[in-house]
């Protein structure tokens, strides 16, 4: 595995582990989500450079646009959670689970 | 212009002017004096009658007929309509008779409606009706006839509902309008067919241009129009219900003039029907059914006006039978003679009703032969004329019709029904006379029996002269268009007289049984059938609105609105998706951390396995 491949994969995995093992705050989960998106962005940008494939040059921009939408959706959910549950503690979201 | 035609046209113009002048006076804002009705309206009709005798005498002496076309009304590319009057055998003889009868009725109405505060309006309506009827009778094209047709229909509505505070009167007026409207559909169908296929509404042009065409459809339309206006079976309930109007209205409209308009239309259009066997058979069977059914209903009615109304309906059926025998002139003769005695019967009923303080039930009358002798005598004369007593007015037309019926190749069932109806005529006429004039009084002692007013006596006298001599006078002075069959077996010749005498004897026998209890448990079903008018109004007047309402509910509301536009459209998507969505959200328990951890671990495993 090349060092670049290893770096990006491990960055992605670390972000995902942060998303999966979050304990208290929803905001930290959203930050890890952003980290995953960042890793994917760098990967896509390096793709066209390393492989000399100019056809995929626009892919990182698209990726960035969609990640911005997703981040804003996540933040809206955070605000809604804060309004309905009072905090963004993860334990609060499970209270009415059946 | 030929002097005879000039005489005809100027007489009709003068008649219209004389009749319209009192009406125009009412349109100014001057208040009418109290005896406007007797001084203006009745005098106008009397003058119009005297004027109409001039064309009549000219026609009787020369036999000349005329058609006058004057003002061009509409010119379209294909159809011209002009103001056109036909002075033929039918209109010249009918107009004086109608005016004579109307004169008598108006004079009677000055006494009958004396206490009504709106008497002047009543006379105005009657005059308007008369003008519309004259337009109908003298019309030479179907457009003008239609104007008269609708005019008489509207005036009938206004006059039947004269006492509009009474719910039954309003119902009866509405029935008259609705049933006449159904008939009007037939007339408009006939007119439309003729306008599009024969390209004319003029009577002369229609007859010539339709020689080789198949006229079944327009003839069916015209027969439907006659069924509606002349109360044939199927569209008949309005005529007995129309007795809610005052007695002069019943006498004028619903015995002599308006209800014969349908028959008159068929008589005018008879050259179209001569060769169409379907139309003739339909007229015959419809007329026979009508005359039998209504005579049956008349047997057990207890309201004197209803009995006379059913009698009118039965005679109208007889006229329809005559048209079905291809004898329009005999039907016309019956119209003329029937006008006299039927109007007189209604006026006698009116006199009796007012004398007994507005009592109309014959079970509460009796003994009027001594108390109101003149009225009873006129009632008897009228009933005898109705049953076709030899040499009174009704005999000449009715006997001629029955003879023609017996000697032609005709449906035996129609023949039987007509003969039975003739015998029923004798039965219910005797019933009326028995209950009203014979026996002992069954009414309250202080009844205002007074027939000494000349406004009552003179009309009855005039109509009595007409009932006795009218048939003879008309028959002596006309030429029959079709040669009648003059030789027949004696049984056929005497058939009408025999069945009438048979009916009379049966009725006399039944009359003597009224004071004895003949049967311990009487047979009530036929009586119920007859008294409830064959259950036709009870069924039809409820069934048709119920069907319409059901149709509205089932189709408009339930099928279209609720089903197609709601349940299968927008709501279907919602109803299908909601269970799916709730099932899915019930499945997801919300344990995000567990789901993500599992996802991560599988991802790590995949990575490790793929790299090693």
From TrEMBL, chain B:
Domain NADH:quinone oxidoreductase/Mrp antiporter transmembrane: start-end pairs: 139-423
Catalytic activity: a ubiquinone + NADH + 5 H(+)(in) = a ubiquinol + NAD(+) + 4 H(+)(out)
Record membrane topology: Multi-pass membrane protein
Domain NADH-Ubiquinone oxidoreductase (complex I) chain 5 N-terminal, chain residue ranges per copy: 73-123
Origin: domain of life: Eukaryota
Membership in a protein family: Belongs to the complex I subunit 5 family.
Transmembrane intervals: 6-27, 48-69, 89-110, 122-139, 145-165, 177-195, 247-267, 279-300, 307-325, 331-353, 374-393, 413-436, 463-482, 494-514, 594-611
Residue span(s) of domain NADH dehydrogenase subunit 5 C-terminal: 428-609
InterPro entries: NADH_DH_su5_C (IPR010934), NADHpl_OxRdtase_5_subgr (IPR018393), ND/Mrp_TM (IPR001750), NU5C-like (IPR003945), Proton_antipo_N (IPR001516)
E.C. number(s) listed in UniProt: 7.1.1.2
Swiss-Prot/TrEMBL GO biological process terms: ATP synthesis coupled electron transport; electron transport coupled proton transport
Coiled-coil residue spans: none
Record keywords, A-Z: Electron transport, Membrane, Mitochondrion, Mitochondrion inner membrane, NAD, Respiratory chain, Translocase, Transmembrane, Transmembrane helix, Transport, Ubiquinone
Cellular component GO terms held in the UniProt record: mitochondrial inner membrane
Name of the gene encoding the protein in the UniProt record: ND5
Cellular localisation: Mitochondrion inner membrane
Predominant location: mitochondrion
GO MF term (any one): NADH dehydrogenase (ubiquinone) activity
Pfam family, one: Proton_antipo_M
Record function comment: Core subunit of the mitochondrial membrane respiratory chain NADH dehydrogenase (Complex I) which catalyzes electron transfer from NADH through the respiratory chain, using ubiquinone as an electron acceptor. Essential for the catalytic activity and assembly of complex I.
Protein name, per record: NADH-ubiquinone oxidoreductase chain 5
């Amino acid at each position: 595995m090349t060092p670049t491949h290893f770096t990006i994969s491990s960055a992605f995995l670390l972000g995902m582990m942060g998303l999966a093992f979050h304990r208290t705050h929803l905001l930290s989960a959203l930050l890890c989500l952003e980290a995953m998106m960042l890793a994917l962005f760098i990967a896509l940008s390096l793709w066209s450079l390393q492989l000399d494939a100019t056809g995929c040059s626009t892919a990182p921009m698209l990726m960035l646009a969609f990640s911005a939408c997703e981040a804003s959706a996540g933040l809206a959910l955070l605000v809604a959670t804060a309004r309905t549950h009072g905090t963004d503690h993860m334990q609060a979201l499970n209270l009415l689970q059946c | 212009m030929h002097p005879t035609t000039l005489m005809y046209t100027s007489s009709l113009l003068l008649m219209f002017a004389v009749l319209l002048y009192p009406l125009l006076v009412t349109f100014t804002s001057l208040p009418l004096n109290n005896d406007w009705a007797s001084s203006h309206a009745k005098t106008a009709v009397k003058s119009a009658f005297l004027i109409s005798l001039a064309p009549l005498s000219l026609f009787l002496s020369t036999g000349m007929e005329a058609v006058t076309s004057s003002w061009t009304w509409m010119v379209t590319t294909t159809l011209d309509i002009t103001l056109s009057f036909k002075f033929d055998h039918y209109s010249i003889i009918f107009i004086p008779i109608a005016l004579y009868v109307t004169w008598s009725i108006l004079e009677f109405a000055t006494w009958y409606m004396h206490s009504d505060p709106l008497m002047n309006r009543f006379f105005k309506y009657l005059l308007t009706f008369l003008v519309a009827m004259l337009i109908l009778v003298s019309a030479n094209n179907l457009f003008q006839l239609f104007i008269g047709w609708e005019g008489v229909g509207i005036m009938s509505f206004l006059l039947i509902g004269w006492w509009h505070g009474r719910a039954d009167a309003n119902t009866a007026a509405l029935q008259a309008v609705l049933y006449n409207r159904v008939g009007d559909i037939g007339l408009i169908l006939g007119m439309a067919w003729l306008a599009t296929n024969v390209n004319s509404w003029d009577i002369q042009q229609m007859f010539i241009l339709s020689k080789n065409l198949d006229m079944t459809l327009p003839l069916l339309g015209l027969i439907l129009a006659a069924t509606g206006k002349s109360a044939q079976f199927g569209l008949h309930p309005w005529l007995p219900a129309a007795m809610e109007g005052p007695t002069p209205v019943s006498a004028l409209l619903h015995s002599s003039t308006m209800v014969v308009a349908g028959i008159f239309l068929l008589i005018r259009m008879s050259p179209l029907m001569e060769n169409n066997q379907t139309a003739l058979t339909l007229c015959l069977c419809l007329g026979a059914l009508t005359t039998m059914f209504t005579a049956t209903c008349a047997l057990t009615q207890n309201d004197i006006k209803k009995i006379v109304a059913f009698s009118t309906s039965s005679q109208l059926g007889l006229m329809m039978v005559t048209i079905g025998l291809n004898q329009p002139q005999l039907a016309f003769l019956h119209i003329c003679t029937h006008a006299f005695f039927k109007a007189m019967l209604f006026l006698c009923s009116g006199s009796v009703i007012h004398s007994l303080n507005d009592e109309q039930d014959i079970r509460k009358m009796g003994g009027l032969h001594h108390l109101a002798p003149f009225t009873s005598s006129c009632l008897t004369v009228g009933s005898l004329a109705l049953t076709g007593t030899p040499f009174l007015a009704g005999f000449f037309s009715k006997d001629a019709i029955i003879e023609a019926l017996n000697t032609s190749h005709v449906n035996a069932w129609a023949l039987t029904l007509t003969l039975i109806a003739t015998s029923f005529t004798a039965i219910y006429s005797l019933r009326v006379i028995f209950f009203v004039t014979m026996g002992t009084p069954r009414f309250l002692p202080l009844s205002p029996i007074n027939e000494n007013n000349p406004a009552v006596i003179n009309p009855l006298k005039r109509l009595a002269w007409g009932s006795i001599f009218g048939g003879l006078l008309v028959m002596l002075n006309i030429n029959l268009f079709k040669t009648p069959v003059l030789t027949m077996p004696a049984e056929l010749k005497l058939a009408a007289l025999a069945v009438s005498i048979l009916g009379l004897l049966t009725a006399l026998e039944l009359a003597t049984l009224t004071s004895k209890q003949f049967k311990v448990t009487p047979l009530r079903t036929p009586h119920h059938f007859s008294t409830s008018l064959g259950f036709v109004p009870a069924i039809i007047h409820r069934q048709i609105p119920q069907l319409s309402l059901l149709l509205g509910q089932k189709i408009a509301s339930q099928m279209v609105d609720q089903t197609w536009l709601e349940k299968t459209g927008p709501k279907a998507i919602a109803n299908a998706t909601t269970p799916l969505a709730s099932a899915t959200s019930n499945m997801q328990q919300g344990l995000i951390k567990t789901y993500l951890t599992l996802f991560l671990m599988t991802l790590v495993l995949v990575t490790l396995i793929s790299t090693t």
